[in-house]
Each structure stands twice: as structure tokens, then as C-alpha cells.
Design goal:
By secondary structure, this protein is mainly α. It is built from 18 helices and no strands. The model has no long low-confidence stretch (mean pLDDT about 80).
Length: about 425
């Protein structure tokens, strides 16, 4: 088994020489830990795709007869619930000697919440189904926040600096490949859609439970736990570290790649194709883009995560401007135009995700990764909460205007990212 782990480790990373900032004990077990990261994260990412609130849960609530009010709550609950609590959970994670157990607890919590959603969907309808599923999604989101705030710290302790992008890239590509299959079956009509959706959410619950169990076998060297900094005191990091401020500013601008997809779908509806299954196409475009791009983004991030953020901003701006151009040229109703734009945009989005994770892990001091992650995610959570109002106001002027604003944000992110320090593995 050890020889197999060594062989796979050497095949999946560019440079296996050097300890990459690890202790001697952690360097000896790095190949085994690398594979545990890749496999556990793969299962978690597959589960994410199977229960996607933007698509899968939205369709499920509509199918159960819940009102648009509950459908509209799904994405804000998921995004804010996963980010905002981190400022308060980070001190507890920071106090743990082995922080892998925080990730394990968060993964099992997500699995339990997903199982509850299946039970609610099988036994409830209407407003009651909407309220219960939204409450369970809040539990899932908070559990996810615990995983998020602990993962960068565990990754930094167990995988070398020049190999972290490969670990997350492998996981994202494997996860995306599985979700591509789900999207194709979903769009084929071979299986009753309601049955398929419930089966997918049930599978997501099992995958999260399995990921938590598998991640518990990670070999993490215990570190002296600290009492942790009080939640509000962590915000002083913004005053003390100008690079963290610039990083958050760049990441905030790059949220345009996450906020724009619904407006691209809206272009298709305005072009007279509102009956086309654009949501199913979005799942497929996102998964294919993730499958083909995440591995490449991960390898590039190991060389320069700063440049990955810059390239992602450029790709996002180009795809958004292309969407506006195609619409003005009367081509947005064609079969190829919007799916191609969505593929380009999702490629940029996954580049942002890879680049920001690796840059933050490499930038943060070893003993402060949890605090840096919590502060960054909390600020972004606040920005995402305001994005709903921003999008609603901007959409009054039309989808094209909104997309042009998002394109300008992506271009501005390039300029901000240029000012970040270059951190090389």
C-alpha cells in the first residue's frame, strides 16, 4: 500500500522534492495524506454537485409546491450560512490539537442534514416542506462552514506547499466528472426526475458520511492548541495585514464569476427560449468546465496562485463581455452561444476557487491559517448577502447592464491582484 501511495503521489504532482514547509514527521506520511485529501474532498465535491441549492434544491421545492419565497431563500442561506459563522467557529478550531476532527464533524453534519432533506421531501409538501428544508439547509451550511475554516489549516499541515494545488485540483476534477454523469442522466429523461433528485440527495448524504470517516484516517501531527482569538478581535487582522486586505478586495471583485450565471440564463429566456432546460445545461456546463479546468488551475496555482487569480479575472471578463456581444448581435438564442459562454465563465469561476484557496493557505502564517480563513470568508459572506440587493437593482436596467458591471468587476480584480505579493512554492 505504501508503494502504491508513493507511486500515485509522484504521478499526480510536479515536484515531490523537499518537505514543502512540513515537519519531518508529516513529510514522511505526505503521500498517504495527499491521497486522503484527494479522495475525501472528491466525495465532498460530488455531494455538493448532487444537492446544488441553485439548481437541484430549487427544482425540488418547486416540485413539492413550496412558494417562490422559500425557493428564493435557498442560495442566501447556503452561501451566508457557510461563510458568516466562520468568524466565531475559528477560535474553537484554532484551540484543537488535531483540527482534522473539525472537518470530520462538519462533513458528518452535512450528511445528516442531507438525509433529513430526503425524509422531509418524502413526507411533506407546500410551505411546511419549504420551511423544513430551508432549516435543514441552514444546518448543512453551518456544518460546511466548520469544514471550510478547518480545511486550509489541515491542508497546510499535511501537504507540502508546492503540492497543495494538485491535491485540490484532483479532487475537483473527479467530483466534476461524477456530476457530469448526473447532469446527463437528469437531462435525458430516462429516470423520473423526482425519483432521481431524491436518489441524488440520498447519495450525497452517504458521500459526506463516508468522506468524514475517511478523512478521520488522515495522519495529522498534534500541535499545541491555543485558546483562540475572540471573534471580533480577529478582525484586527484586516488592520495589521495589508496583503490580507488586498486579497479580500480581489476576492470580493471576483465574486462576479459566481453571481453572473443566472443573468446569462436570463438572456436565453429573453431570447425566446425560456422553456429550454437552461438550469440543466448550467449543471452540465459547470461540471464539464470544472472537470477540464480544475486540474490545470491546480497545477498552475502551485506555481503562482496570484497569476491564477489574474487569469481567472481575465477569463471571467472576456466571457461576460462575449455574452453581451452575442446578445446584442442577436445570437443569444442560438444553440451554441450561451452554453459556450457558460463553459467559459465556469472555467473562470473554478480558477478563482483554486487560486484563492491556495493563495490564502500559502500567505497566512502557519499558526493563523484558521483565523485568516475565517476573516476572509466572513467579509465575503457579508458581500454576498448584499449581492442579492445589488443584482435586483442592477437587473432593472437589463441583464446586459448587469453583466457589463460584473465584467468591470472582473477587470478591476486583475489590477488589484497585481498588487499582491508573489508567493512561490
Amino acid at each position: 500500500m505504501k508503494n502504491l501511495e508513493e507511486t500515485l503521489f509522484q504521478a499526480l504532482v510536479d515536484d515531490t522534492s523537499g518537505k514543502g514547509g512540513l515537519t519531518e514527521a508529516q513529510a514522511r506520511v505526505e503521500p498517504a495524506n495527499f491521497l486522503r485529501h484527494a479522495i475525501s474532498l472528491s466525495m465532498s465535491k460530488i455531494a455538493d454537485g448532487l444537492i446544488d441549492p441553485k439548481l437541484v434544491l430549487s427544482w425540488l421545492l418547486a416540485h413539492l409546491g413550496a412558494s417562490a419565497f422559500y425557493v428564493g431563500l435557498l442560495v442566501p442561506i447556503r452561501e451566508a450560512g457557510a461563510l458568516l459563522p466562520q468568524l466565531f467557529t475559528a477560535p474553537f478550531v484554532h484551540a484543537m490539537a488535531r483540527r482534522k476532527w473539525a472537518w470530520v464533524a462538519g462533513s458528518i453534519g452535512q450528511g445528516a442534514a442531507a438525509a433529513g432533506i430526503v425524509l422531509a421531501a418524502m413526507s411533506l409538501t407546500g410551505a411546511m416542506a419549504g420551511a423544513v428544508i430551508c432549516a435543514l439547509l441552514a444546518v448543512l451550511a453551518v456544518s460546511r462552514s466548520i469544514c471550510s475554516v478547518s480545511y486550509s489549516d489541515v491542508l497546510g499541515k499535511t501537504v507540502g506547499q508546492s503540492r497543495r494545488g494538485a491535491a485540490t485540483g484532483v479532487a475537483t476534477s473527479l467530483g466534476a466528472g461524477a456530476v457530469v454523469i448526473f447532469a446527463l442522466v437528469l437531462m435525458s429523461g430516462l429516470v423520473d426526475r423526482a425519483t432521481l433528485v431524491l436518489m441524488a440527495i440520498a447519495l450525497a448524504a452517504l458521500l459526506w458520511l463516508a468522506a468524514g470517516i475517511f478523512f478521520s484516517t488522515l495522519r495529522e501531527e498534534p500541535a499545541p492548541g491555543k485558546a483562540g482569538t475572540a471573534a471580533l478581535e480577529q478582525l484586527t487582522l484586516l488592520r495589521r495585514d495589508p496583503q490580507l486586505r488586498r486579497f479580500i478586495w480581489a476576492r470580493g471583485l471576483l465574486t462576479a464569476t459566481a453571481l453572473a450565471p443566472p443573468y446569462i440564463v436570463l438572456l436565453g429566456a429573453e431570447a425566446g427560449h425560456g422553456s429550454f432546460d437552461r438550469l440543466g445545461a448550467l449543471v452540465l456546463a459547470s461540471s464539464v468546465a470544472s472537470f477540464f479546468s480544475s486540474w490545470i488551475w491546480g497545477r498552475l496555482a502551485d506555481r503562482s496562485s496570484r497569476k491564477v487569480l489574474m487569469f481567472s479575472g481575465m477569463a471571467g471578463a472576456v466571457s461576460l463581455l462575449a455574452a453581451v456581444f452575442l446578445d446584442l448581435a442577436g445570437l443569444s438564442g442560438t444553440v451554441w452561444a450561451l452554453p459556450l459562454v457558460l463553459f467559459m465563465l465556469m472555467t473562470a469561476y473554478h480558477g478563482v476557487r483554486q487560486g484563492r484557496v491556495i493563495y490564502l493557505v500559502d500567505m497566512a502564517p502557519k499558526n493563523s491559517r484558521a483565523a485568516y480563513t475565517a476573516v476572509s470568508n466572513t467579509v465575503i459572506g457579508v458581500l454576498l448577502l448584499g449581492s442579492g440587493l445589488f443584482g435586483a437593482l442592477a437587473s432593472l436596467a437589463g441583464a446586459n447592464v448587469t453583466l457589463m458591471i460584473f465584467a468591470a468587476m472582473s477587470l478591476a480584480a486583475i489590477l488589484v491582484t497585481r498588487g499582491l505579493d508573489e508567493i512561490k512554492g
